[in-house]
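Appendix B.2, paired examples.
Example (i):
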Amino acid sequence: MVGKWLTQHVNDTNASMAKANARTRGCNLWTRELWHIIWELAYSEYTAEKSLDAFRKARWRLWLDLDDDTRKVWNVKGEMAWDMVKGDLTKIIPPKLSLQ
């Protein structure tokens, strides 16, 4: 029974992913790398906000404060990451995350 559900779920997911036109944005990669700076701003300036709203506001404020050239570099990295996802994923070695 579980196997049948899992098979159906995987098939449904694969079908929906085939229609998806998702992108890995440079902002996403930038956020992943500099989350601690965003976190610091979010919880020092947006203390009256809900946690997710504070983080979101700080993220976009810092992202939009970057100069165009820096954003372009990050967006190119995002495009490269997306191209890797569309390629052969068996050759990708995931990075080890450190929680500092």
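Example (ii):
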Amino acid sequence: MTSQEMFGKVRVQDIAAAIQEIKTGGQRMTARGAMTWCIQFQEIAYPTNYVLALAVKSATGQTFVPHTRKDSKEIIKALEKLLDKESKFKVVFRQAGRTRED
């Protein structure tokens, strides 16, 4: 199954559950320096690939790893479209910065 096919099974609820799992400590999110894209929720930036890895695992039971840069760009576009109507989540472009506001 391609990364696009795996992502196609993800719903907004899977994204919300992944972020909730990170927030409650079910999954530990370590701070990173550089992060190009993130999912912003309640003014905290979560690394897109990490959130998607948890969301895809929940939705499909498979491990999610974008295989190429082109894959990643297509996934970001699909993620933006998925979250477009969901005002509490926002896909944000960042050059660098911390993943959490502690």
